[in-house]
Amino acid sequence: MKRVNLKSYIAGFITAVLIMSMITTVFAAARSVTATVTYRDIKVNIDGVPTTLTNLEGNAIEPVILFDTVYVPLSPVARAFGKTSTYDGKSFTVFINSPKTTTEKVYSIIDYYNADGKFSDLGRALPFDSKNGEPALTVKKGDVIIVGDLKYTVVAESLTLYFYTQPSLTAVIQWWTDYFKDVEESGIVKK
């Protein structure tokens, strides 16, 4: 029968306990930091065009300086480049997505309005038609339209969207959300 050295056994047990406690600490290490951010009226230019970054409600979002690094909000920048951004709170992951195919186009409705709820193409050269004095955009089958957090794919051959002035950006989102609920029930788009 083999003899067990009690000192070695205790040392091994203590080492195992210490290692397990360090692993648990690493995996449970969510942290909070109190820091001072600096606002310096930082201006944003995208492709040489001065741009005011806004949240989905139309409120201006200003970049900040933290620890000598400039931080810019991701969602408005992603939208400016025709991409979408989403955050998965379960995996703590930010996703920035491009259109899945080369023929699919992504249109974010919010990008066509300013903070006052008035139509604005934000200096983009987009294929707008004009009908009855209102700007209109014709989207085709497979194109994606984003309204707030909702994404719709056009399943009909085409759909013409008319951009009407609303009293605020919040009203814009509500108007288009209601519109797309009706259009979805008609089978022209799908979520």
Shape: extended
Share in helix: 10-25%
Number of strands: 13
Class inferred from helices and paired strands: alpha+beta
Percentage of β-strand residues: 25-35%
Q: Supply the number of helical segments.
A: 3
Physical arrangement of strands within the biggest beta sheet: 7-10-11-13
Give the overall pLDDT as a whole number.
74
Structural topology:
Blueprint: H1 6-27, E1 44-46, E2 49-51, E3 64-66, E4 69-71, H2 74-80, E5 84-88, E6 93-97, E7 106-108, E8 128-131, E9 134-140, E10 144-147, E11 150-154, E12 158-162, H3 169-185, E13 189-190
Overview in brief:
The protein is of the alpha+beta class and 191 residues long.
How is this structure best described in words?
With 191 residues, the chain is α+β, with helices and mostly antiparallel strands. It has one domain (44-190). The protein is 24% helix and 27% strand. It has a four-stranded mixed β-sheet, with helices on one face. Strands 8-9-12 form a three-stranded antiparallel β-sheet, with no helix packed on it.
Entry keywords:
191 residues, alpha+beta, four-stranded mixed sheet, three-stranded antiparallel sheet, 3 helices
